[in-house]
Every structure is written in C-alpha cells, then in structure tokens.
C-alpha cells in the first residue's frame, strides 16, 4: 500500500490555504487510499523567533483542527514530531549528505532569511537546515507520496536528491518519495496581497482567512479582497491575480473550475459574495467538529499518544538501518 506523509507547522492559526491546499485532501483522499501519517511538525516552529507557550498551544490547536477537518485516527496516524526522537536522529545523518550550497538555494530560505534580516534580526541556523529535517520527516517513514501545496515542492525535490545520494553512497536505505499536488487551490493567495501566498505565519490579518474565523469575519475579509480596476471577471493569474485567487477559492470550495466560473459572473461584487458564502459553508462543519473536540481534550491527548507510538514503531527500523549503513 502506498505510504503518505505530510505535516503542518504550529507557527500560527491554520488558514483556508492550509485547508484547501492540503488538509481537505488528506481527509477526503489520502487517509482512505493510503497508509497515511500526518504530523504536527513542532520542531520546524523553532526556526524563527518563537514563544514556547504559544508553540505548545498552537500544536494542540493544529492537532484538534486536523481531527476536525476529518482525519480519523482509525484510518491514519496523527502525531507530534517532537514526540518521536527519530526525526532529529535522522536529520543529523542527512546533514552529513546535504551540502551548504543546496540549502542556500532553497527559495523559502532566501525569502524567510531576507525577511528576518530586513527586520534587523539574526537568522537561526535551523532555518537554513530546516529542509533537511523535513527530508528526515519523510524518509524516516519510507513515504512514497508527500501531498503538499506548491510552496513545498522544492523541499520534496531536495528530499528525493538526499535519498538518492544516501542510497548510492551507503546502500539502499530510503524510499525515494514524490510530491503530489491538489488539482485546484495548490496555492491560495493572500486576499490583500494576491502575489503572496496565504501563509499562517505572516500575521497580515485582513488578507488571511483562518479556519476558526466566525462567518461574519470571513465575509468581511472576502468582500474586502483586493482585485483590480477592471470590471470583467476573467481568469488570468498573471494579469488579474486577485480575481484569479477568488475564482480558485470558489472553485475549490464548490468543486467547479475557475475558468468556467469566470463566465458566470458579471461583476466582482457578485463573485466576492458567492465566494464568501462558499467559504463559510466549507468551514462550517470543521468549526462545529472543532467545538465538540475542544469539549473532550482527553480524546485529542489519546490520539496523539497512540499516534506517536505507532509512528515511532514505523520510523525506528529505517533510522536504525541508516545509522548502520553510514558507519555507526
Ligand atoms: P504555512 O505556510 O501556512 O506555515 P505549513 O508549512 O504548515 O504552512 O503547510 C502545511 C500544508 O499546507 C503544506 O502542505 C502547504 O503546502 C499547505 N499550504 C500552506 N499554505 C498554503 C496556501 N496558501 N495555499 C495552498 N496550500 C498551502
């Protein structure tokens, strides 16, 4: 059976981008068709300035939201990265096959390090090596597929390179994984800055729809989305990124196709109104289930405890084999 691994970082409140680009597919497709592991990658939350209590709180919230989005612990494994030592153990070995040059070429590193420096802050070494830890996350489980949004495709490519290099040099140890992308909404953009992705970590408020936003907050954000001075609703990502983003969100929420939908609307106002309602409807069941789960914190605890145990049992043989292969 195909094995699937994916993760979410507890660096902020989860967004509509996380849901449409990743979580929904994990729940609707991956957990049914594959042996799937979904991880709250809390070690990755330490690569930028962080507040310890907030990371802990957001990890728990992310776990609760993954379950609210439909992940079923009877069908898949949900766990927290730091509960399983194998990630850090393997990451060090992979640092010994990765190069400084390939780390510095990562687009996300350049963007995030640039932002830190612009703020006058220093760049943590872990921000540079973060893709290696991500490679360890994936390779430890022998995952065949990694369902991710567009922003993570480069990191999965790096993971493949490291797996191939390790296997060639030290003997066949790792499965070489591939990235899989959702058909629509691979990249949900910020409603206020449609050239940047809707990322939970960059707290730019009004352009981000959070999964726990009240319906009225969702409506307000979508109705105020930046478009352009044109009138005609056409689907053109380059020339009309704001409108294209709304069409993609609407398509992802209703199961339609962005080009076809563009023909249905005669004004931006009508498009925004329908998009807002579609988003509210998509979030409703997730929010209801989230409320139920919050009333039963022991359940989420139990899921994470069992998940870590299962994950550990899966990762240990591969990581032990990698230690032996590399000469330890
Ligand atoms: P973030 O960028 O929000 O910190 P994570 O790295 O935790 O996101 O990503 C969790 C999953 O959500 C990944 O598979 C990522 O590709 C996907 N994802 C995040 N933001 C978006 C977005 N705006 N559009 C589509 N997918 C996204």
The CATH topology of the largest domain is given as Rossmann fold
- Poorly predicted regions are none
SS strand fraction? 5-15%
Total helical elements: 12
- Radius of gyration, CA atoms, in whole angstroms: 20 Å
How many β-strand stretches? Answer: 5
Q: From the 3D coordinates, which CATH architecture of the largest domain would you assign?
A: 3-Layer(aba) Sandwich
Envelope shape? globular
Bound molecules: adenosine-5'-diphosphate
N-to-C SSE string, H for helix and E for strand:
EHEHEHHHHEHEHHHHH
What does the largest sheet look like?
A: 3 strands, parallel
How far is the N terminus from the C terminus?
A: 31 Å
Side-by-side strand order of the widest sheet: 1-2-3
Calculate the mean pLDDT score and round it: 94
Percent helix:
40-55%
Q: Please indicate the count of domains.
A: 2
CATH superfamily of the largest domain: HUPs
CATH class wording of the largest domain: Alpha Beta
Judged by helices, strands and strand pairing, the structural class is mainly alpha
What does this structure look like?
A motif ('KMSKS' region) lies at residues 197-201. It catalyses: tRNA(Trp) + L-tryptophan + ATP = L-tryptophyl-tRNA(Trp) + AMP + diphosphate + H(+). Belongs to the class-I aminoacyl-tRNA synthetase family. Catalyzes the attachment of tryptophan to tRNA(Trp). The protein is mainly alpha-helical and 328 residues long. The chain folds into two domains: 3-181 and 297-326, HUPs (Rossmann fold); 205-291, Orthogonal Bundle (Tyrosyl-Transfer RNA Synthetase). It contains twelve helices and five strands. The protein has helices at 16-33, 52-68, 86-95, 100-104, 107-118, 125-139, 153-170, 215-223, 241-254, 258-262, 268-294, 297-326, and strands at 3-8, 35-40, 76-80, 145-147, 178-180. The protein has a three-stranded parallel beta sheet. The longest helix is centred in the last third of the chain and has 30 residues, at 297-326. The radius of gyration is 20 Å and the shape is globular. The model has no long low-confidence stretch (mean pLDDT 94). Bound molecules: adenosine-5'-diphosphate (ADP). Adenosine-5'-diphosphate (ADP) binds next to strand 1 and helix 1.
């Amino acid at each position: 059976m195909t094995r699937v691994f994916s993760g979410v970082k507890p660096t902020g409140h989860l967004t509509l981008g996380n849901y449409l680009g990743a979580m929904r597919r994990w729940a609707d497709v991956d957990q049914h068709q594959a042996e799937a592991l979904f991880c709250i990658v809390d070690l990755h939350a330490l690569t930028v300035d962080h507040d310890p209590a907030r990371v802990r709180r957001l990890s728990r919230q992310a776990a609760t939201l993954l379950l609210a989005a439909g992940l079923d612990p009877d069908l898949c494994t949900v766990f927290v990265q730091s509960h399983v030592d194998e990630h850090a153990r393997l990451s060090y070995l992979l640092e010994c096959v990765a190069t400084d040059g390939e780390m510095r070429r990562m687009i996300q590193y350049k963007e995030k390090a640039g932002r830190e420096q612009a703020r006058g802050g220093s760049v943590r070494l872990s921000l540079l090596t973060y893709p290696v830890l991500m490679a360890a996350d994936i390779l430890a489980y022998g995952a065949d597929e990694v369902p991710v949004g567009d922003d993570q495709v480069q990191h999965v490519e790096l993971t493949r390179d490291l797996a191939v290099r390790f296997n060639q040099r030290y003997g066949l140890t790792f499965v070489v994984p591939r990235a899989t992308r959702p058909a629509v909404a691979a990249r949900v953009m910020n409603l206020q800055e449609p050239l940047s992705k809707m990322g939970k970590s960059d707290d730019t408020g009004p352009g981000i729809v959070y999964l726990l936003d009240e319906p009225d907050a969702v409506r307000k954000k979508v109705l105020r989305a930046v478009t352009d001075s044109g009138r005609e609703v056409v689907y053109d990502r380059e020339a009309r990124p704001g409108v294209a983003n709304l069409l993609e969100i609407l398509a992802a929420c209703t199961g339609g196709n962005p080009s076809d939908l563009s023909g249905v609307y005669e004004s931006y106002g009508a498009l925004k109104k329908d998009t807002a309602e579609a988003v509210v409807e998509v979030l409703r069941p997730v929010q209801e289930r989230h409320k139920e789960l919050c009333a039963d914190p022991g359940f989420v605890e139990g899921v994470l405890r069992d998940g870590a145990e299962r994950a550990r049992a899966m990762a240990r043989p591969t990581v032990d084999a990698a230690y032996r292969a590399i000469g330890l």
